Amino acid sequence: MTAAEETGEAVPPILAVVGLSKRFDGLVAVDAVSLAVRLGEIHAVIGPNGAGKTTLINLLSGDLAPSTGSVLLDGRDIAGLPAHRIARLGVSRSYQRTNIFRDFTVFENCRLAAQSRLKSSMRFFRPADAYRAVNDAAEQVLALVGLARQADRLAGMLSHGEQRQLEIAMTLATRPKVLLLDEPLAGMGAEESVEVTALIARLAATHAILLVEHDMDAVFSIAHRLTVMVNGRVLESGAPQAIRQSKAVQDAYLGAEDLAVR
Fold first, then answer.
1. Is residue 119 domain-shared with residue 68, that is, in the same domain?
2. Distance of CA 47 to the CA centre of its chain
3. Partner of 83 at 20 to 30 A CA spacing, among 67, 91, 99, 139?
4. 185 and 73 co-located in one domain
């Protein structure tokens, strides 16, 4: 339950997606999708392969421009803005494939991410306080994700799960309001999955999180709201228990027997 649900308050969404579509020639990859994400909330987007989930994240992050529709960040339409501008406005993302600098240390990876928040006028002539702020930001996010003791290791030497944690740390170093996490548990063993799932749950206290993930045990354990996509469209959206019991969702994706054991 989110903080808003616990207090009964109606909290406006930080991120609101309205009628968002993306066409590639004759293919409609995302078809009139609408959803909302609030502070303190994990909104999971689930669906079979090819449902349009990653394309949706690409549209929200600016990696792709939408064909139609709006993406409202605190009421401002950011649809179609380039990725770097959307990141500066407070939306950060992870990728299906780990996106780190393997030959840099863990700390250097986070410091580079933190530096991306500096104004361009400071990139050549940085005062000492700018260096301290960047270093402090890197140290803080490494402590937050549990990698402080690994700060001096080369990123390429980390385990797969630790590399995913590092990527999340790098997204946090940009000081986002909204986190877009694309299959953060992909390729992990059971123990690593538990650790990263717990990390995502903790981050929800101070962020709005849109999560795309195939691990249904993890999704149903931490998501406050779910949206099910099939063939680019929203099939159903609601609380986890409502989605679990939905006949339409069972038929299209999850399967009644699969849901019954969870």
1. no
2. 16
3. 139
4. yes
